Amino acid sequence: MFKNVFLAFIPLFVAVDAIGVLPIFVSLTEELDKKEKLKVIFQSITTAICLAIGFIFLGQAIFRFLNITVGDFMIAGGILLFCIAITDILNPVKKRRIPSKELGSVPLGTPLIVGPAVLTTSLIVMQQYGLAPTLIAVLANVLLAGVIFLFSHVAIKVLGEAGSRALSKIAALLLAAIAVMMVRRGILYFITSTI
Questions:
Q1: What is the pTM assigned to this prediction?
Q2: How far is CA 31 from CA 62, 66, 97, 111, in A?
Q3: Measured between alpha carbons, how far is 81 from 101 in angstroms, rounded to an integer?
Q4: CA nearest 31: which of 102, 106, 110, 95?
Q5: Which of 24, 56, 183, 186 is 20 to 30 Å from 194 by CA-CA measure?
Q6: DSSP H helical segments within the chain, as ranges?
Q7: CA 191 → CA 1, 184, 187, 188, distances in Å?
Q8: DSSP 3-state assignment of 156?
């Protein structure tokens, strides 16, 4: 059982990519106070866990019912992230792009913490290692992301104000690149599934 949990944890850790999402989290929450940040972290973890667990149990059935493919899901998530990134890059004055009430759910909870990569990986992992190890691995990865976000203030202290602004722009570029990658993978999914 422990071996299966560990084997399920590794690909999901790569798919969640909490360390890669950290600069984006810092960028999106830099204007929030500590209490608001904690609320956003809690909301993002709750959203991610509910979505991941719901998808593990109902994902394939919902996709079949709505006639949606994983490729559709990847492209939609990529377009959403790209819009957020472009708004961030082109906005000369730092203003709230996303209300803090929604920030934890979208884009942090989904598609950044639990997006198409995590959802598809969880389905594959479940087939290989079983339901219980997959659920434990998903929960562990999402909670780990929450812990990493919780200590993001350490990164901000190290960077300072100028470094934080530079990180914000780099994070927006990374977000745009992640978005393009998701769209590309969605298109490749269509190509490979029709051949």
A1: 0.74
A2: 37, 39, 11, 21
A3: 18
A4: 95
A5: 56
A6: 2-16, 18-29, 34-66, 70-90, 100-103, 116-129, 131-150, 152-194
A7: 37, 11, 6, 5
A8: helix
Distance CA 65, CA 63 (A): 6
Tell me: the pLDDT tens digits for 109-164?
998 899 877 887 887 788 789 999 999 999 999 999 999 999 988 876 777 767 76
Between the CA of residue 87 and those of 18, 50, 62, 143, what are the distances in Å?
Answer: 22, 28, 31, 29
The Cα–Cα gap between 59 and 41 comes to 24
Give yes or no for a contact between 82 and 180, defined as CB atoms under 8 angstroms apart: yes
Q: Other CB atoms closer than 10 Å to residue 110's CB: what's the count?
A: 22
Task: State the Cα–Cα distance between residues 3 and 102, nearest whole angstrom.
Answer: 37
* Residue 108 identity: L
